[in-house]
Amino acid sequence: MRDVAVVGFAQRQMKEFEGSPTCVELLVPIFAELFEQTGWTKSDIGFWCSGSSDYLAGRAFSFVSAVDAIGAFPPVAESHVEMDAAWALYEAWLKIQTGEVDTALVYGFGKSSAGVLRRTLALQLDPYTMTPLWPDTVSIAALQARLGLEGGHWTEKDLAAVAQRSLADAADNPYAIRSGKEGVDELLARPLYADPLHKHDCSPVTDGAAAIIIAAKDHLPTTAERPAWISGFAHSVDQADLGSRDLSGSPSARRAAISANVGGAPIDVAELHAPFSHQELILRKELGLDDSVSINPSGGALTANPMFSAGLIRIGEAAKQIWSGDAQRTLGHATSGPALQQNLVCVMEANR
């Protein structure tokens, strides 16, 4: 296996929807920021890979318009996944492993405000038995949270504690669109949004984009003083039928953690893509993260959750912890599908 490291990361989240930029307008300054970080130009990138969704954009081949941010000439090697860009990062990592390229720039984007997001996401369900009923994503998460409450897996106070810590940590994150200093009791006193969830238990609708640069060991930029080496990278998926699995757990997250060797050494920081507060509790258990692990110091998806880049952002935030010297071994996680159906785990280390 070739040693590959994360060497660049940039992101944008929109606090206001009215007049928010197009995907191309979002991506151009992000690419410029990455080139400034690495000292590279477009010619140093061997492979470009993106994550987005046509049904979120409301038109076929919507990702082609985002290629305008790269530029039409000279031609580039490019690919796309209809998923969060964390899976595009996985494709780019594999591309480098083959030896075909040595560097890659991965980006994801989504304009969730273009429609009613919780209804749009019903389109990712089984098209014959589930989608015709239009169960929205918040209601499905509420059913999952209720199942865990009645099964004794967590309490309402546990959910509020996750939200309270996330909102407090987001105060130091300039890209978070939601933060707060309320205590657990104050959060519990708020009105319910989708019983048993409050609004602070649900990630906010967010427009945004993010990008990451990865490079093989012998092709690092000179600016990479402390690269975040990828030591474990895996993903797994559970059945789409919500009735075929216990929703209070996530077997695919557990399998991905085992394949990525999460338990091989202590994790200092974990950035978990948990769009709902109870899902963080599920992930901590399935990934084997004890109380010594710092969870989502960025505030996590409960404070900003741009579709199709939120998972990539978790990996970028985890990489930043290594770049800064605050952590030796970190974990970035991404999820896709309803109720934690698909999960990806990326383990990064300071030493290689």
From TrEMBL:
GO MF annotations, alphabetized: acyltransferase activity, transferring groups other than amino-acyl groups
Xref: InterPro entries: Thiolase (IPR002155), Thiolase-like (IPR016039)
Name this polypeptide is given: Lipid-transfer protein
Native source species: Nocardioides baekrokdamisoli
